[in-house]
What we know:
By secondary structure, the protein is α+β, with helices and mostly antiparallel strands. It folds into three domains: about 1-105, no CATH class; about 135-245, no CATH class; about 245-370, Sandwich (Immunoglobulin-like), CATH 2.60.40. Helices cover about 15% and strands about 30% of the residues. The protein is built from three helices and 18 strands. Strands 11, 12, 13, 15, 16 and 17 form a six-stranded antiparallel β-sheet that branches. The protein starts with a strand and ends with a strand.
Amino acid sequence: MMAPLLESAVIYGGDDADKMLIKRIPRCSASGLPHIPSPLRGEGEGEGVGMIFHPPLIPLPSREGRFRIPRSLLRSSLFPVRKGGVDPVRDKSLTGFTLIEVIVVMAIVAIMAGIMVPFVYRIWEGNDIELTRERMLDLKRAMTGDPRMIQNGIRTNYGFVGDNGQLPASLAELLPSYLPSGFDPNKYNKDAWLNEFVYTTTETGGRRVAATLKSKGPDRQLGTSDDIDDNTDPGICKINESEVTPTGVVQGNLNFVFFNSSAVPVTPAYTALITAEYTGPLGATIANSGCISLNIGLINAGETKPLTQNFSSVFPVELPIGKSEFRPILYPNNSCAGSGTQSANYMSVFISDGLNVIFANLPTINYTVTGP
């Protein structure tokens, strides 16, 4: 009698024959498994695929209509598995991602990229803006000096203006003496986006006494909202007149010692003024203050009389920042006319930006009065 056909037969194998699924064979005979496939050969022993069973190696019936292959007869499975008989269906280390998982991961990555890209761009743009501001500040200090450089309580650096009495006509005039060490000669006059700075000067009395620096900003277009200029950074991009030629007002003390060599008392009606020598656009320049009347009073015959008089006067021009040499001149008349008697020494005065009044205690002039 022919053995009944089973709906299916399941062949197990491996190290654990009860757990290792080898092949599910549909509609097979319980006695001879006539539907077992012909021998199959895999690509190599390393993948665990080789010959499969064929009669008379008949699987043994087991519980629940399943068939078992004796472990001694089992050589390999129909599916590539790792050595040791690990089931790829049950070993999670051999499984991959589902399509849904891949889509979710890609969506998360896209969202993070959308958030991070603008943030990173803003960081890069911020760094470029800061680099541009640093270059503009270096240029301003090259023109008007660095107020941080102080020695013995006196500022020592006044930049281009301190040596020339005015601002440069172009940024190229700052090369190479006035720029900080290590500057790039190809980029010192350009912003971080390699656009040249826009440098504009203002003249007063034939001198360049004010200026502005502008950068076109990230969009490389002048006149847009991202420009770096005197509106957004006035402390860096704008050079005011008070930073170049701060003042022409001078106050202080005039000092004299008068000796009356005549035989009679005298009351001299003398005057004085102050000269200031500084470096201007044409080199050494001298400016004279207004005429100052002296209150000497009576000097008896053979008497020596010292005089210290406060004064306040104005030079006809504002003096530039930097070093100036002051010296008083005494005129033996009441109008500062003709030739006068100068003091023996100059007085060095250092003029800083933002100064409103120059204070000076001027050197003493010794003068002999010879008559009324």
